[in-house]
Design brief:
Blueprint (H helix, E strand, L loop, with lengths): L1 H21 L3 E6 L4 H4 L9 H8 L4 E2 L6 E11 L6 E12 L5 E10 L2 E9 L9 H7 L6 H5 L1
Antiparallel strand pairs: 1-3, 2-3, 3-4, 4-5, 5-6
């Protein structure tokens, strides 16, 4: 009976250790953000789309409206046991260009407590370019008076 109990306990300990080992968190990284030393090579107001691609690589995605910018995105997810994966870190690097294709802005954003926060920003212009129709419409909601409607 002594060998049988020893084998049973050993099997139970091994099964318990394997079960606990399977519950350790697993991490997965997705995407790419260029390192800070590569970003320092980019000069706002001087570099172009081609020189940015040459210096730091092709972006994850690019702006679809007027080729407005390059976006590099990196995220880190943690999976713990049978639970759904949870995003624990996200960074976005946005490089904006003017109509001539020259860099106007380099910004880095992060995700903290579900809110997007700027981590770093290099800007040469005010950023107030051509506001869209909806932004103009919503911006003017409180700027009229009934007297102005009568003529």
């Amino acid at each position: 009976m002594g060998i049988y109990n020893f084998t049973r306990h050993t099997g139970l300990v091994i099964a318990l250790a394997a079960g606990l080992g399977a519950c350790s968190p697993q991490y997965a990284n997705h995407g790419y953000i260029p390192p800070a030393e590569d970003l320092e090579q980019i000069t706002v107001g001087v570099d172009t789309r081609a020189s940015v691609e040459e210096a730091i690589g092709t972006p994850s995605t690019a702006g679809v409206v007027n080729d407005s910018g390059f976006y590099y995105v990196r995220s880190r997810r943690r999976t713990f046991g049978a639970l759904a994966p949870k995003e624990i870190e996200r960074q976005v690097l946005a490089i904006s260009f003017d109509s001539a294709g020259v860099v106007t802005n380099v910004e880095r954003f992060g995700l903290e407590r579900g809110q997007v926060v700027p981590l770093a920003r290099r800007v040469t212009t005010s950023g107030v370019g051509n506001p869209g129709f909806l932004k103009q419409l919503l911006g003017n909601l409180g700027r009229f008076s009934p007297g102005g409607l009568a003529g």
